[in-house]
Amino acid sequence: MNLEEKLNKLEEIITGYGQMIVALSGGVDSTFLLTFAAEKFAEAGCPDNVAAITAVGPQFAEDESGFAERLCESLSVSHKKLDASHIIEQIKENPSDRCYHCKKALFSEMKAKADLVGSVLADGTNLDDLDDYRPGYKAIQELGVASPLKEAGLTKADIRQALAMTGIREASDKAEMPAFACLMTRIPFGEEITETKLRMIYAAEEYLKQRGFTQVRVRCHETAGGYLARIELNRDEMDRLNEIAAECEADFKGIGFRFVTLDLGGYEKGKMNAL
Q1: Distance between CA atoms of 170 and 68, rounded to whole angstroms?
Q2: pLDDT (tens digit, 9 = 90+) per residue, 19-31?
Q3: Starting from the edge strand earliest in sequence, which strands make up the sheet with 50-56, in order?
């Protein structure tokens, strides 16, 4: 199917729900899903039949949740926040199926709220997500959460293309932004998840993004001497880090890291899953 055919199928799927709540992370996929759904429900004369819910807590980047709030305002969509801080304690031992337990707890709470108002809870899983290690998707399936983007056959490239064509600036600007993920993915399996680590990771990534680096990951590793920051960047931006290496090391130490390194392999989606 071409993109137009996929979007027609997506419209058929979501309008068939009657009412829906989008699990809005503030990332590219859920941003597109909400924007598209808001447009189609408005065209059908029932704009109030779509709403959004966003999980907040130290494991989620503040700029992503802030974006989610602004997007809902621009779309005139009802938006609720769900405090998910307590989930960190439940999965602090960080097993390899951490994402399963996290999603199960998080989406169980979201699903309960959606069921209460008779809505279908939908997430932003797309077709490309199935190519990576995604234990969280198992939890989503078990709970009966809908994944309309995947069902319509949309890939990440399709979603970025469609998002860029929307007339909502807040949404279309997101099409060019790099992929993001929960901050817990920066901590190797088996190493304890703490709020301190998560806040350090977020501060370090914000530091690099404010200096013009685009695709950024700061992995936090435990060593005998303290926390080690392993920076992943796009290969074409790695040389530029050398220009601010001394400043970066000093500032990362101020954040709480003892050692600062650059991953010579560069950024790679799902790299931590190889562990």
Answers
A1: 10
A2: 999 999 999 999 9
A3: 78-83, 50-56, 20-23, 120-122
